[in-house]
Each structure stands twice: as structure tokens, then as C-alpha cells.
């Protein structure tokens, strides 16, 4: 003991003697600077691990370049030119906006004004990828039915359950009918599927992510949450990550353009709260390997969300019709939540989606309860407080009016036309279909022509397709609107490819140069700034 004390004293004296050569301020600053350096190195290492060394070095280089005199002003001027070009198609209407209330109310004249504004919209019938999923004109048939249902309940709000009990029942029935489509009757699902209606796929996704975060914090104590998504997963997951402070680990798709299960596994760590699989993914219409992702989720005890926003009202019926649909719903072990849109192939009014959970224990983490508000006790199930009961009624009317037979018939039509479009594209020299489409989204690219120039020609013919990247490609999301016009689509597409082959190069007012440049631009921060500038100027 005495030897140890003696050694400690001698060590202290030696240290004091050595440090006596330095100023007290230096001794005080040294550990702080060391701590700062350590934190900087840790942050740099984390950035490299997340984004890759090349991306980090490029970002640093671009930041340094922008500090040079005149460079930042030049970049801003060029961004302004790009934004102006993007808006040249008439996207912005700020110059003609009404900015004040009329001095004297317009009374019924407003209907005429609305009709005038509506007449300026493009001719969307049959020419849009996705967008409008119901067949026919908006003034007849199924359109007229759901519009009437909406108008009957346009004054209602499910926030006031004690007043509008009818709407509460309608929502419960819509959720229950959807749960029945997605596995609640199967023993493997556990039979406790529950959920709520939301304003759209993005809100359903936001709620599923928020719920998974809070559930895993309670269950496993995770305070620095991470989620794993494929690079083909919908951008709403990035929005959720920004809103809820969740780190995204983005995994490249495999050679079949599907979620790479091995890549997902490599990303799992002690902070992982959830993984995401799409059925199908928005870009290419391909169903991720949900069963394999479910096995991973079960093994590591984390959440698995399945994005069925596109497929929820197609895949159950396509499977019944005999199409080779891989497992995708709550029957898959490990699936904890699902989002599905009624306003797409469910043929409900815009603004209707559903988020479902495997059981009530998980869903409880979706709710917000406030006990200390002077306005009273408050609890809300979704992001919105007040919600339009008319949309709930419209969704209920859509589902019950169509019934199983109606959805089966519709699915048969759009699946058949989707396959015809796929074969037609494959027959056009210079084009290829991406992956093996499972459903009603067909993505295609080209090795011989600029596909974005093809898109510009198609746009001049009235078509509105979705432009994709990695690889550069287009897709069409087939709806009932296309079942009577798909042959015209294929003819116009072939003619557009032939036109670009004969006259390569951008057309006046086309967006091919912008899309092409954006895809090749190594500084993704610059692309993000362009998008933000465009949105700020457009709304």
C-alpha cells in the first residue's frame, strides 16, 4: 500500500514538473481543443460511413469553391435560369392570383369562375400516368356516386365522435374491410389488425414511421433511431426521417431492382427501429422480397413496414385471379405495419388512405394524448385533428358500391392492359422494360436514345409520364383510364422514339437537358437547392 502511495506521489510530482513549463491558459485550452478535435474526427468518420468518402470530399470541395469571389453569385444566377425554365410550362400562376377578398361577394358567380379555372387544366383523361384512377368522366358513373357521398357528409368531422357517430362507424368499416383484404382472417396474422384512415399515402407512412420509432423506444430503449430503406422506397420515408429525427440507411437495389436483403442485414445495428419493403415500389412496379425482410425483422426484433400504397387494392385481387404474386401482407411473419391508399386503385376520393398495424399494442404509439391543456383532455389518432368526414364517406361508398366482384373485374382489366403495354414496349426497337413488373407500373429505358427527349415528345402529344433516375427511365402507372387508350399510347411512344432517333437533341421548351444534367450532377446538394427554389417559386 505504501509503495503504491509513494509511486502515485512521485508520478504526480513528475507530472507537475513537466507541466510547469506551460502557461495555465494552455493547460486549460489543451483538453478542450483535444475534445473538439475528437468530436470533429468522429463526425467526419460518421459522415464518410453514411455517405461515402467521395461524396463527403465532393461536398467539401463544392463548399470551398462557393467561397471564391463571384462564384456563389454565378451559381445563384444559373439556378434562377433553371427554375425559370422549369416554370416555363405554366406551372406558376402567381401573377394571376387573387390576393384580396372581393369587395362585394360574388355569390353563385363563383361557380362560373371555378368552371373557367377548371377549363384551363390539361386534358387528363387517359393521358396521365396514375393521377386519376377512376374510369370515365368526373360527372357520371362512379365519379358521381362518390361525389354525392362526399356532399352528404361534407359538413362532418370525426374529431367530434359524439356528434357524427355515422362517420366514426364508416371509418371503422373502411379499416375493417381493408384489414380483411390484407390478412386479418388468416391465423398467421394474429387476428388483431387495426388502423386508421389518413389523408394520403404520405401521412400513412409518416404515422407508421413515428409509431415504429416510439414503439421501439418503449420496447428496446432506442433513442437514436435508424431505419433501413431501399433506394427505390418512396420519398415519404425521407420526409418522415426529417420530421422525426431518424437516421436513414439507404441500400442500393440489387440487379433485379429489388430491395437487397443482404445489404439490409449489413445495416442492422442496435439503433435500428424498422425496415421498409415496397409492394410494389413506385419507380418500377416491383415487389420487394417481403418474406425475406420479414425473417430479418423477426430475427432482430425490429419493425417491418410494407408500403402497399399502390398495391393494396390490386394485389389481393390479382392473386385471386391467378397472377404470380409473392407474399406481401400481414400473413408474412415480421410485418408490423402496412400503408395502403384507397384513393388510388380503391377508387375513392383523393385524400383517403389507411395505415394498419399488426396489433393494438403497436398502434397505441401512434396516438397523441395531452392531459395538461386548459382546453380539456385531448387525444388524436392521426396527424390532423379535424378531418373531412366527406372523404371517409366517399371511401366507404367506393368500396361498398364496387364490392369484391367490382374490384376483381377492374383488376382483371388493368392487369391485362399492363401486360399488353409491357409487351408493346418490349417490341419497340431501342427500348427495354426495367425488371419484371409485378403489377400495373411499367418502367422503361433506352440504350440508344435519350429517354428524356422521348418524354418531351410524348409530352407534346399530351401524355404525362413519370421521369425516373438511376437508371434514366420513364414509367406509366396503368389505370382504368388507359384501358381504352393504351394502343394510342404505344403508337405515340413508338413514333416518339423514331422522332428522337431521326432528330436527336432537345426540343424547344423541353426538360430533357434539365433532367439529364440533374442525373449526372455529382453535387446532390445543388440538385436539392434547385428543387427547393423551384417549389418556393411555385407555391
How are the elements arranged and paired?
Layout: H1 2-19, H2 24-51, H3 53-66, H4 71-86, H5 109-119, H6 141-152, H7 165-181, E1 194-198, H8 201-220, E2 226-230, H9 236-244, E3 247-251, H10 261-267, E4 272-278, H11 290-300, E5 303-307, H12 315-320, E6 337-341, E7 353-357, H13 360-363, E8 368-370, E9 378-380, H14 389-426, E10 431-433, E11 441-446, H15 451-460, E12 466-468, E13 473-477, H16 486-502, H17 512-520, H18 524-538
Parallel strand pairs: 2-3, 2-4, 4-5, 5-6
Antiparallel strand pairs: 1-7, 6-7, 8-9, 10-11, 11-13, 12-13
Helix pairs in contact: 2-3, 4-18, 6-14, 7-14, 8-9, 14-16, 15-16, 15-17
Question: How does this structure look, described?
Answer:
- With 539 residues, the protein is an alpha/beta fold.
- The protein has two domains: 253 residues, Aspartate Aminotransferase, domain 2 (3-Layer(aba) Sandwich); 135 residues, Aspartate Aminotransferase, domain 1, CATH 3.90.1150.10.
- The protein is built from 18 helices and 13 strands.
- The strands form three sheets. It has a seven-stranded mixed sheet, with helices on both faces. A four-stranded antiparallel sheet has the order 10-11-13-12, covered by helices on one side. Strands 8-9 form a two-stranded antiparallel sheet.
- Helix 12 links the parallel strand 5 and strand 6.
- The mean pLDDT is 90.
- Its EC number is 4.1.2.27.
- Pathway: Lipid metabolism; sphingolipid metabolism.
- One of its GO terms (biological process) is sphingolipid catabolic process.
